[in-house]
């Protein structure tokens, strides 16, 4: 099939490359010339495992090309919309500027029978509104949310754990089935529904995941006041298959380009439709999440005798999670910035996210490697659980720092081993 993908960020670029590798002929469109130049040269403009290989392979076969010129979508029957829906500047609600611009840009190039497929995360009601713009061209709209996780984006796109089609016709279902034929195994669940449900599936899934993380982080707060261990608590309740152990890792909290802004946009949308009370708990979810960052900062001050001012603090990790260079709403970066704001002498390092972090916060000091980051540290904060941090050897690391004090913001180190090697160990929600 011939298809276009409008928006080549974390979602769109992976989707375009994955569709090409499933055998389709794909053109990816983005307004950012630098991004398009990089993708057209077969280079990923951000860190995502597996993406560079797909780009090179599809670039060579000619299945995949990129352009800044939206008129090149003409003659491609399927058009995916994968642009961002960031948080609005006023803080409330999703900014739909890019979605609206993408649809407006597409309209003159649509032909009767084309299928426009929304993948961006949008407030419920958006698809209905966009359909009124698209249908007069003779094209049709489907809403097909994307559940990919950064770091696993290629796998999640090529082997989705479920497909959701928000549609108005059987023809749209048939076309989407054809699009995903190579991605679907015989037992991939596929939910065919209306626009509103499809939009809400994505919003509800992210709200649930965020709530699960904040639930365990709330238990961490209780554990901190009672001497209990939240990691053992999570293991124990996670054995109940109705609960499950995944997304019960207490720590410095969730971040990234999805969960934080999606729960805020959901709360804002619920207010708009007069249902604010239904998801009022999401404000609590957000508040608990942000309190965890403060807890890490308080622990740093505590281990340093009451103040971080002019004390040498190492922050390991800047990305919002491992296997990503994404610093959007990153708890790790926020902790580094806040400590710097308190006058601490912060040196930060991350295997992939230093360039992005430096561009956003040039005031911070960045090491060029883990050894340089650790040298002279009076306190080390593990803020993103990259494997190279989890695997640090407590004995040799103790020899590198000025004072062996570690705050394990992700609860991934073995407290006994680190204490045995002479470290003062502080986790979150752990005695
Ligand atoms: C998320 C959803 O998982 C994905 O389905 C959706 O399409 C987009 O949003 P992503 O933002 O890539 O994906 O990251 P995810 O792996 O969900 O992690 C989100 C944040 O939660 C990270 O900051 C992570 O560190 C944190 N987290 C996750 C925890 O703090 N504890 C956990 O137990 C799990």
Automatic annotation (TrEMBL):
SMART domains: UDPG_MGDP_dh_C. Keywords: NAD, Oxidoreductase. It comes from the Bacteria. The keyword NAD applies. Its EC number is 1.1.1.22. It catalyses: UDP-alpha-D-glucose + 2 NAD(+) + H2O = UDP-alpha-D-glucuronate + 2 NADH + 3 H(+). It is an enzyme of class 1 (oxidoreductase). It holds the Pfam family UDPG_MGDP_dh. Pathway: Nucleotide-sugar biosynthesis; UDP-alpha-D-glucuronate biosynthesis; UDP-alpha-D-glucuronate from UDP-alpha-D-glucose: step 1/1. Residues 314-415 form the UDP-glucose/GDP-mannose dehydrogenase C-terminal domain. InterPro entries: 6-PGluconate_DH-like_C_sf, NAD(P)-bd_dom_sf, UDP-Glc/GDP-Man, UDP-Glc/GDP-Man_DH_C, UDP-Glc/GDP-Man_DH_C_sf, UDP-Glc/GDP-Man_DH_dimer, UDP-Glc/GDP-Man_DH_N, UDPglc_DH_bac. Belongs to the UDP-glucose/GDP-mannose dehydrogenase family. This is UDP-glucose 6-dehydrogenase. The lineage of its organism: Bacteria, Bacillati, Actinomycetota, Actinomycetes, Propionibacteriales.
């Amino acid at each position: 099939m011939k298809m276009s993908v409008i928006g080549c960020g974390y979602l769109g670029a992976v989707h375009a490359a994955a569709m090409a590798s499933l055998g389709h002929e794909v053109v990816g469109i983005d307004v950012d010339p630098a991004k398009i130049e990089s993708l057209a040269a077969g280079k990923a403009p951000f860190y995502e495992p597996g993406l560079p290989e797909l780009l090179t392979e599809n670039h060579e076969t000619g299945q995949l090309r990129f352009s800044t010129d939206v008129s090149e979508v003409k003659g491609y029957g399927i058009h995916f919309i994968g642009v961002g829906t960031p948080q609005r500047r006023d803080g409330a609600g999703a900014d739909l500027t890019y979605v609206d611009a993408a649809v407006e840009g597409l309209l003159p190039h649509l032909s009767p029978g084309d299928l426009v497929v929304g993948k961006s995360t949008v407030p419920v009601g958006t698809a209905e509104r966009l359909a009124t713009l698209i249908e007069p061209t003779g094209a049709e709209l489907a809403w097909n949310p994307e559940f990919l996780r950064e770091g696993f984006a290629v796998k999640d796109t090529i082997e989705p754990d479920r497909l959701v089609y928000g549609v108005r016709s059987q023809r749209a279902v048939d076309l989407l089935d054809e699009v995903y034929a190579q991605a679907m195994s015989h037992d991939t669940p596929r939910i065919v529904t209306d626009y509103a449900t499809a939009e809400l599936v994505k919003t509800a899934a992210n709200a649930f995941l965020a709530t699960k993380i904040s639930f365990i982080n709330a238990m961490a707060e209780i554990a901190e006041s009672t001497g209990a261990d939240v990691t053992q608590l999570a293991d124990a309740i996670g054995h109940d298959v109705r609960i499950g152990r995944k997304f019960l890792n207490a720590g410095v909290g969730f971040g990234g380009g999805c969960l934080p802004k999606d729960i805020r946009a959901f709360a804002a949308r619920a207010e708009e439709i007069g249902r604010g009370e239904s998801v009022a708990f999401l404000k609590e979810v957000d508040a608990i999440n942000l309190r965890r960052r403060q807890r890490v900062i308080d622990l740093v001050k505590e281990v340093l005798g009451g103040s971080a001012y002019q004390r040498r603090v190492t922050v390991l990790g800047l990305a919002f999670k491992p296997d990503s260079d994404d610093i959007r709403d990153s708890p790790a970066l926020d902790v580094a910035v806040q400590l710097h704001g308190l006058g601490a002498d912060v040196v930060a390092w991350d295997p992939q996210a230093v360039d992005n972090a430096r561009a956003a916060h040039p005031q911070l000091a960045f090491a060029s490697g883990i050894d340089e980051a650790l040298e002279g540290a009076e306190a080390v904060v593990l803020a993103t659980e990259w494997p190279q941090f989890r695997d640090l050897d407590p004995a040799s690391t103790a020899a590198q720092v000025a004072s062996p004090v570690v705050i394990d913001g992700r609860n991934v180190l073995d407290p006994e081993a680190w204490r045995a090697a002479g470290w003062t160990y502080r986790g979150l929600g752990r005695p």
